[in-house]
């Protein structure tokens, strides 16, 4: 009974639906926007695929950043209140970097935010990631209180060649490798070991 139902009921319906779909695809009157299969792909679609492969935001690939940079200061001020000078300095540094006035082998900017809890240090980092890279997920937070010991340097940047764990990479280096377009927040950096500071000095 079940086989008969499939043979004489559902299968013919599916075949009819497929024929109608094939006819629609071959109809010259059907616009590209309505087609399921199209011969031409858009810049946005290419950007989406490459973005998934590389971790680079789509807007970085297919959209001019001019408008984004022009409004960066306003966007940051909307999210971070009461820190006008800090926001202005961060926005100016990013704009200068995007204009090419920086070493291409260095980060876009390195900032030291000081102050008690709740004044907006982390929020500014989140706002910057969201503004530049379209999502707060592009902010990588590393708790530097976990790097108080001398040997913890290898956890941050990976073990030297020949040592155990060399192939695994470090917390910082792996995070940047997987997501090169990101804001790195080194939280409570004052608690890190001095050897960690020496490494960061070379990076920043």
Architecture overview:
By secondary structure, this protein is mostly helical. It has helices at 2-26, 43-54, 58-62, 66-70, 72-79, 84-98, 121-133, 153-157, 171-178, 194-203, and strands spanning 139-143, 183-187. Strands 1-2 form a two-stranded parallel ribbon. Helix 5 (72-79) runs antiparallel to helix 6 (84-98) and helix 5 (72-79) runs antiparallel to helix 7. The longest helix has 25 residues, at 2-26. The radius of gyration is 26 Å and the shape is extended. The model has no long low-confidence stretch (mean pLDDT 78).
Descriptive tags:
single chain; 204 residues; mainly alpha; 10 helices; 52% helix; chaperone; nucleotide-binding; ClpA/B_CS2
Outline of the structure:
GO terms for molecular function: ATP binding; ATP hydrolysis activity. The chain is mainly α.
Structural class: mainly alpha
The major sheet is characterized as: 2 strands, parallel
**What does the average pLDDT come to?**
78
Report the order of strands and helices: HHHHHHHEHHEH
General form = extended
User: How many helices in DSSP terms?
Assistant: 10
Count of beta strands = 2
Determine the strand fraction and express it as a percent band. Answer: under 5%
Low-confidence stretches: none
> Over all CA atoms, what is the radius of gyration?
26 Å
Roughly what percent helix? 40-55%
Enumerate the strands of the largest sheet in spatial order, edge to edge or round the barrel: 1-2
**End-to-end gap:** 73 Å
GO biological process, one term: cellular response to heat
GO molecular function, one term: ATP hydrolysis activity
Organism: Staphylococcus nepalensis
Domain ATPase AAA-type core: 106-204
